[in-house]
Amino acid sequence: MIIYDWFFILKNYKIKGVVHIGANKCEELDFYKSLKIDNIIWIDANVQDTNNNILEYLVADIDDKEYCLNISNDNESTSILNYSKNQKYSPNIYITEKKIILSKTIDTIYNIHNIDYKSYNMWFISIQGAELLALKGGIKNINNIDIICIKIYTQKIYENCPLITDIDNFLHQYNFTRIITEITESSWGFGLFIKKMFVNSINKS
Description:
By secondary structure, this protein is of the alpha/beta class. Helices cover 22% and strands 29% of the residues. The radius of gyration is 16 Å and the shape is globular.
């Protein structure tokens, strides 16, 4: 169940650009435009939308590790992890294809594409249970990020997926605090993490 109006929350922060990992069909494009965000980098392991410039990478914590990508019939549930309780909550979702893909880290993707860290201060990460792996592969650039919107879980919907406390503990090391928690009836949702210094600077302005 959606509780918060994300537009009115995020419009209070100066978002220079977003690196969006888990693009699917770029459904959030109009939302970003409404926030007047022009700098958007879309990343997805299984590109379906050819209308937008999506970088095709499987994002994880190390480079060139071989993963089996479980492609689902709705693509949105595609994951490198096997389904667990996800079948209980989404009985109509099933795997249609498996393909082997080599991983890349966020830090390596920044280097490959010469991403200007000054132009992007937000990450959006929704990759079906592999969110913590993505964060661990971005520690060289996470200090340039002020806002992270990330998919979170209160139960292991995917096998070995991180729970919300795992994300909290990792991001706490980099001075992020969770200010919004949105959980659906299916035990997944999104957390909004803001860097503490960024919150303080907003409050003072």
